[in-house]
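Exercise: predict the fold of this chain.
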Amino acid sequence: MKHKKLVQLALLLGSVSVLNAQEPTVMTINDKAITKSEFEAVYRKNNGKEVVNSTKSVKEYVDLFSLFKSKVFEAESLGLDTLNTFKTELAGYRRQLASPYLTDKNTNESLLTESYDRLKTEIKASHILVRVLETALPKDTLEAWTRLNLVRNAIMGKLPTSTEIANYDKILKSTDEIIKTLKGKDSALYKAKFNSVKNLAEYYKNATDKFMDIAPKTSDDPSVVDNKGDLGYFSAFDMVYTFETAAYTTKVGEVSPITKTKYGYHIVKVYDKRPTRGEISVSHIMSRFTKDATAQDKENAKKKIDELYEKVKGGQSFEDLAKQFSDDIQSKDRGGVLQPFKSGRLPKQFEDAAFAISKDGEYSKPVETQYGWHIIKRTGLKTLPMFDEMKSELKQRISRDSRSQMGRSALIARVKKENNFKENLKNRDEINKVLDTTYLKATWKADRAKILGNKEIFNLGGKSFTQNDFAKYLEKQITFRSPTDINELMKGMYATWLEESVVEFEDAQLEKKYPDFRNLLREYRDGILLFDLTDQKVWSKAVRDSSGLANYYNQNKNNYLWDERADVTTYKCLNEKIAKDLRKLLKAGKSEKEITETINKTSQLNVGVDNVTYLKGENKNVDANWKQGVAEKDIIDEKEKKVLVLVVNKLSPKSPKTLAECRGIVTADYQSYLEKEWIAYLKNKYKVKTNDDVLNTIK
């Protein structure tokens, strides 16, 4: 509701110009002048490009506009624009509005095209991973890359030489992780990594599939033991961007170059590329069982689906059977029709069975999912939508994906170029003179950098970013860290600070550079104020004011009446014989549970039960049997092809609903009442005087 109301209120704002004492005054509100240009801009915006150019339509808009302005003045008079909650919310909206301006549009357009092209294809691939942290030291990164490079060469048939193995051993023993474990007299990790290289010739000799048979011996992915690195089929956005790119740029049967992700180094072998499955439409018949179903419940569900499958095979209408017997309440009335779906939306067993159906009109054998058993009928298959249809969705997915950093990187490069970026890395590196292990222990202070003289590290658009600025950033980011190379840590944090500083610099220029951004932000500002004020006076007040709501209800309770009602149990019998047997059980006083267990012993399709409370006039069959007890005659349901036995359990006369039963509609009516009272107050407080001579000039 909040977003919807905000949009509605924001639309009232338009592009309001700054008041200019030299402009004609179209009206005053409590002696506050409203210029012609301000009124005219809002009037034309809210009436579209083509407005009714008549004096009458302009004057009719005066009431709406003056009420809007009165609400703005009232919100400001109450200090709502000074509250921290308002400032925080406006800052949040500003970040959202700024986001499209803080990336490179050309790069984003290329990403849109690329991602769409990739969505046309699904890739089946396996990978080998060598883990390495993004913050790892160069020597640890070198070990990981060297190990994977030797593995890749071996898979390609170039087995490591004794010299290469010895060289790798030296690199491995120099890494911090191995040094620590060997000092602790634990050589397990060292042996595992070293042997993964040393034994490559043996692995290669014994491998049938050189990639997937070597993967379990060399990959750091924990799942490799079970899947040999097999990732199945995937498409764009399913993997991190650099990994996805490696897969899409590698030919079927080939192994990719080494690629880096946040998880470490990977090589990818592509086994297959196929056109994307697309979007499929199906109907289904479902025999449900719950999570806590007993073995007997599951057996009954299987018996039911098998019976229905035989009926489908026998030529009976799939849609009619779904309507009569499916346990999917949401789809059964539509003959089992489901909303179209793509891969990854429904249980895997269901999707695989659905996409395996080769033609529209054909159906699957019974398929089990965690929800029960299904028979699936294909009714349609759509290929990937056109690019223009998907563009909006693609933009959203890119914004949440690691590829969005490419647009940010391009923006940073552009802002640097536009603002004559200059950098002095020598001054940056002087920070090492005052940065020591106390930083790792989270006790270091930025004041220590003052002795360096506060030299400039970089300059952007004439703004100097100094050693003291960087030191303050380092202190702000301080946290307890494991022992590491301080110099490398500083360089990594500098790169982050530089990027953030460039983006913040551009962000600060948005109001000056882009009038559309400036105007839209102002609209959001006034929209939030109007929402908060209306929420305070109307929406939330109606919810919080329990005594006022109760009084309003008591004064108007005759507006909220229940019609006559009947609590009805409907037994849906397969035929008249079953209905006759069921009536005998009812006469004998058997419970609903006892009846269904007895009747359904031979088939789970014999009887189903619905318990519904009907209003008078809502169901013609119930209306015809409007008295408590078992209906005298059976009812033939031609649609479901069932024999119905109605039991009217209870009749209730017309009566007022309790407040709890109609709280929603009473609250809405109470809000309308409060809003009328509030508007009357505003009109009384804010006196409007129009200048008809000026109004008449607006066309």
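Check your answer against the key: The chain has a mean pLDDT of 90.
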